[in-house]
Amino acid sequence: MKEKETKCGRPTKSGQLEIQDKLQPYFANAISAFATANETGINIKTVNKYFDQWYCEIKDSQQQEFIEKTKFEKERAVLAIDNQLLKLYKIQDDLEKQAIVTSSKVKHAFEKGYYKLRAQVVGMIVNLISTRINLVNAVTADASLEQKAKELIQENGLA
Predict the structure, then answer these.
(1) How far is CA 36 from CA 23, 46, 56, in A?
(2) How far is 52 from 145, CA to CA, in rounded Å?
(3) What are φ and ψ of residue 42, in 5° steps?
(4) Which pLDDT value is given to residue 101?
(5) Staple 41 to which of 4, 23, 90, 140, CB 3.0 to 4.6 Å?
(6) How far is residue 83 CA from its own chain's centroid?
(7) Phi-psi region of 9 (alpha: psi -120 to 50; beta: other; left: phi over 0)
(8) Confidence of residue 99 (pLDDT cuts 50, 70, 90)
(9) Cβ contacts of 19-22, under 8 Å, gap ≥ 24
(10) Percent of the chain beyond pLDDT 90?
């Protein structure tokens, strides 16, 4: 255990940088504030102040990355649905073309399977369109938080 610093009051800017440089390795290695204060001799409140500040910076950074990643993944999902819809529309067109060129001899057997298959394709198209609409209209985390903040501001008369 190091001898505790006896200086009182706010350190200079260079002193703050020295403290940060001294504390950074402990924070990076997930050493507790208590153990860090004991080891470095820096006041526990000062250690907590810097640890809390760095934790908030990391959390805010990760939250922003999460929001951006969520938006990107949402866009990718919409594009994937669009690609699947295009394939299903092509299958639907191919089925209709096949129905037109099928000879009358096999038409009866073909029609039974055709209508069943066509109904399945139409059902898949409808499901994908519904899923796409829900996805496009889904509120992202940042918009939800912004709306909640506005509501709280209005409720508390801060606007």
Answers:
(1) 7, 11, 19
(2) 22
(3) -85, 140
(4) 77
(5) 4
(6) 23
(7) left
(8) confident
(9) 19/46, 19/50, 20/50
(10) 39
Indicate the burial class of 50 (C-beta count within 10 angstroms; 0-12, 13-18, 19 or more): buried
Coil vs helix vs strand at 125: helix
Positive or negative, the CA dihedral 24, 28, 29, 35 is positive
Q: Which residue has the tokens 């918009």?
A: 143
For residues 109-123, give the mean pLDDT.
Answer: 84
1: CB partners within 8 A, 6+ apart = 38, 39, 41
Contact 146, 67 (CB under 8 A): no
Model pTM greater than 0.85? no
Q: Which residues, at least 6 apart from 2, have a Cβ–Cβ distance to it below 8 Å?
A: 38, 39, 40, 41
Rounded CA separation 52/34 (Å): 13
Question: What letter does residue 9 receive in the DSSP assignment?
Answer: S
Rounded to whole angstroms, the Cα distance separating 49 from 143 reads 31
Pairwise CA distance, residues 94 & 86, whole Å: 12
